[in-house]
Design brief:
430 residues, Arc Repressor Mutant, subunit A, Nucleotidyltransferase, domain 5, six-stranded mixed beta sheet, disordered C terminus
Length: 430
């Protein structure tokens, strides 16, 4: 493998390029992500090395260096300076100011946790650090916090939240559309990609690489906009149909309720405060360089308020569901009546045409009986697409989608501010 790290260093940065080697400047960040995941509970070293494209010998070498010298040991030519045998209060205060300069959006609690993690002696309490920041004019006005209750999934990869952060202009004249994917349980930033558009094919390319590196989630939550939403009646697109074919259940949030994806929204505010605010970016490559650098800090260094000041990487682990390079065959129930969706998005059932979505054209769906007379469910693999009513008038013969969050046997997602099945309470702050 050498130092090319082909397995993990293949993130597509520019439109029109599916894969390209990472730069030398991100090599240490890449090694650190491998080591952090390998040290996580329940990690499978063989599977991890396969996904990251490195040998076990190479992986253990970086783990050993990390344990001996920390992050600095992951560099090619590490020259870690000796620590001072004594630290005065002036030295500590200087260190606080330095860290605040590096992370201008972090407050006393986060800086306190970071100082402890870096082995600094005589670390002052968070309130004292806040006073130091105030004396140096480094505090901004508090914006307060939202009062609504949040919940989180019990384990990593049960639910990923996906969204686009609002696009911004670059010096090159184009616009950057940051694509973000966040693990609901750990807040681990699985994807942070600088995209040149918000098209479904662009998103699919980024997700494919994430699935190869981290495995498949059980389900994904997204809003109702393009490219993963179409309209209220039929929210399906080629992108979401692809996810369903992979066995990933898809949930859409409630329209006009951004708190449905509260964790993603909060992550975007953090991204703006710590990366985008006050900075000008030349092009997509420049954006991606900065995103890659900050994602490692966010995942493995930045204390998270909702995680009792632990870093997201301490709670995340790889999915046991590997990405299949070929789409698997759909499985249907024994009582399902199988129908093929035609070009215009309809299928025949009981001698009638039923509209589902053009996104499913050429695919098969399973029509499943319910306990209600004349009402059937329409399934596509692991997902219930909705219901049809044989008593409906001809103009209303369509598969009616359930409202997001409405309980059924296929859905437990669709909300972040309302408690879901398999969810536990979490702090509303980050």
């Amino acid at each position: 493998m050498g130092n090319t790290w082909e397995g993990i260093l293949r993130t597509p940065l520019l439109e029109g390029s599916l894969r390209m080697p990472w730069k030398v400047k991100t090599m240490m960040e890449s090694r650190r992500e491998l080591v952090e995941l390998a040290l996580g509970a329940g990690s499978n070293m063989s599977e991890l090395c396969r996904r990251f494209g490195v040998s076990r010998k190479t992986a253990y070498k970086w783990m050993r260096r990390y344990e001996e010298s920390g992050v600095s040991g992951l560099g090619d030519h590490s020259r870690r300076p000796k620590t001072s045998p004594q630290r005065t209060s002036v030295a500590v205060e200087k260190r606080v100011v330095q860290l605040r300069t590096e992370h201008p959006a972090w407050g006393g609690r986060k800086l306190h946790r970071l100082l402890l993690a870096r082995g600094v002696e005589d670390v002052p309490v968070p309130s004292t650090i806040t006073e130091i920041l105030r004396r140096h004019g480094l505090l901004s006005e508090s914006r307060g916090s939202h009062a609504y209750q949040r919940f989180e999934r019990e384990r990593p990869n049960e639910l990923w939240q996906m969204d686009f952060k609002g696009h911004f202009e670059m010096q090159s004249g184009g616009r950057c559309h940051p694509l973000t994917v966040l693990d609901d349980h750990s807040r681990y930033a699985v994807v942070l990609q600088a995209c040149g558009n918000e098209q479904g094919q662009t998103v699919q390319e980024r997700l494919r690489q994430a699935f190869r590196n981290y495995g498949l989630p059980q389900s994904m939550l997204m809003d109702n906009g393009s490219p993963w939403g179409d309209d209220r009646e039929s929210p399906w697109t080629p992108l979401t149909v692809w996810l369903l074919r992979l066995g990933v259940r898809v949930a859409h949030g409630r329209p006009y309720h951004p708190q449905t994806q509260g964790k993603a929204e909060r992550f975007h505010r953090t991204l703006v405060a710590e990366v985008l605010h006050g900075h000008v970016f030349r092009d997509l490559r420049h954006c991606q360089d900065r995103f890659d650098e900050w994602r490692v800090i966010y995942n493995y260094e930045r204390p998270h308020e909702a995680l009792d000041l632990a870093a997201p990487g301490s709670r995340y682990e790889l999915s046991v569901r590997s990405y299949p390079e070929q789409l698997p065959e759909l499985e249907f129930g024994p009582d399902d009546v199988i129908r093929k969706v035609q070009r215009q998005g309809w299928f025949w059932f009981h001698g009638q045409e039923w509209k589902v979505s053009k996104a499913f054209r050429g695919e098969r769906v399973g029509v499943r009986p319910t306990v209600r007379e004349g009402v059937w469910e329409v399934w596509f693999g692991p997902q219930c697409l909705g219901e049809l009513d044989l008593h409906a008038e001809a103009k209303n013969r369509r598969v009616v989608r359930r409202s997001p969050g409405e309980s059924d046997s296929s859905s437990g997602e669709g909300t972040d501010s309302v408690r879901c099945a398999h969810s536990v309470r979490s702090s509303p702050t980050q």
